[in-house]
Amino acid sequence: MSRVMNFNAGPATLPIAALERARDELLDIEGSGMSILEHSHRGKTYDAVHTEALALVRELMAVPDTHDILFMQGGASQQFAVVPMNLLAEGQSADYVLTGSWSKKAFAEAKNVGKARAAANAEKDGKFLHIPGEDELELDSSARYVHITTNNTISGTQYAKLPDTGSVPIVADMSSDIMWRPLDLTNVGIAYAGAQKNIGPSGVALVIINKALIEEGRTDIPAIFRYKTHADKDSLYHTPPTFGIYLMRNVLDLVKKGGGLAAQEKKNREKAAVLYSAIDANPDFYRSSIAKDSRSMMNVVFNLPTPELEAEFVASAAKEGMVGLKGHRSVGGIRASIYNASQLAWVEALAQFMKTFAAGK
Ligand SMILES: *Cc1c(COP(=O)(O)O)cnc(C)c1O
Question: Would you state the pLDDT for residue 1?
Fold first, then answer.
């Protein structure tokens, strides 16, 4: 068996020890004679996994007592609709900060449900190259919430810090940078993320939500979409994505053993610095159009002089065992996704490859 250096944007690389644990337990978990896949979600074997996964999220992210943690299905895209369905009542409006294609999708869903306005739009000539500063935000002080996308997976921008939204709660799509570092959640009304980039496999959406917002949620929507339904039953209202939660538990257990989110941040910053240095060291060949203070620590997006060279770069890198480097089809170029589970050695190998490739042209 040989594993590649996986720079995929999502689903993305997982820590090998989390996969090995799943492999070792796949046919028989804890002497129960069956796989976690075959266990009842009401039984004690699964219950222990579920409870541990919730506790790990709470501990690693230092989730305050004011907030609940939910495991839901439907990915982040379902949350685009579920957030306004729960929170936007007649006569209320929500603010959306548009920083990329995912935030545009979230905004469109909000408008399908109720009233929403753009508090800022970072799009220029079809591109999103920076995170709007607080002076660029036209916030409505009576908005129900302000929606932001903390990391823009496709364009490669990221908030260096959360914006000040006064007394209006932040709702954050953190799909591609959840748990990349410690974060104060006090002013975050809802943080949600599809697990498949930074913390697990696809199929689980993690939602961290202020309990007051759960209680204020609309009751005239289907029960399955109400946050309260899931909160009241500890995310066991119906069958949760048990295997996804199990694998996420394996991942989070490793993050904890590795020193938690402070250690994770240090590692992530180190990896990103290696790649951005490789880009900046050769500005005639590698070009990052992203504003420096908006550069993503998770998705490093850059261009070569021509699309032909970019295609050759991706193909040659794959021959060296580095996969997933092709930029998103909507923006082109190169994208190296370097989430929590990606390794410093891979990033160093990629930086070396960049140097050699440019020198050969
Ligand atoms: C991948 C991604 C999504 C979409 O997630 P799904 O779970 O596929 O719905 C939404 N937002 C961001 C920022 C993403 O990176």
Answer: 76
Architecture, CATH, for domain 261-359: Alpha-Beta Complex (3.90)
DSSP label at residue 326: B
Confidence category of residue 348, pLDDT binned at 50, 70, 90: very high
What average pLDDT score do residues 140-163 get?
98
Q: Residues enclosing ligand 1, CB less than 6 A? A: 10, 75-77, 102, 149, 153, 173, 175-176, 194, 197
Q: Where does the chain have alpha helices with state H? A: 16-25, 44-60, 75-87, 101-113, 211-216, 227-232, 242-257, 260-280, 307-319, 344-359
**pLDDT, tens digit, for every residue of 308-320?**
999 999 999 999 9
First to last CA, the chain: 34
Q: For residues 275 and 284, give the distance between their C-alpha atoms in angstroms, rounded to a whole number.
A: 16
- Chain centre distance of CA 78: 14
**Which residue has a Cα nearest atom 5 of ligand 1?**
76
CATH class of 16-257: alpha beta
Q: Mind telling me the catalytic residues?
A: 102, 173, 197
- What phi and psi values does residue 301 have, to the nearest 5 degrees? -110, 130
In this predicted structure, the answer to whether residue 75 has a pLDDT above a threshold of 90 is yes
Closest residue to atom 7 of ligand 1, CA basis: 75
Q: What is the residue extent of each domain of the chain?
A: 16-257, 261-359
Q: Do domains 16-257 and 261-359 have the same CATH topology?
A: no
- Distance, in Å, from the CA atom of 166 to the CA atom of 163, rounded to the nearest integer, reads 9
Q: Give the chain's length.
A: 361
Does residue 187 carry a pLDDT above 80? Answer: yes
CA-to-CA distance for 101 and 132, rounded, in angstroms?
15
The atom of ligand 1 lying closest to the CA of 78 is 9
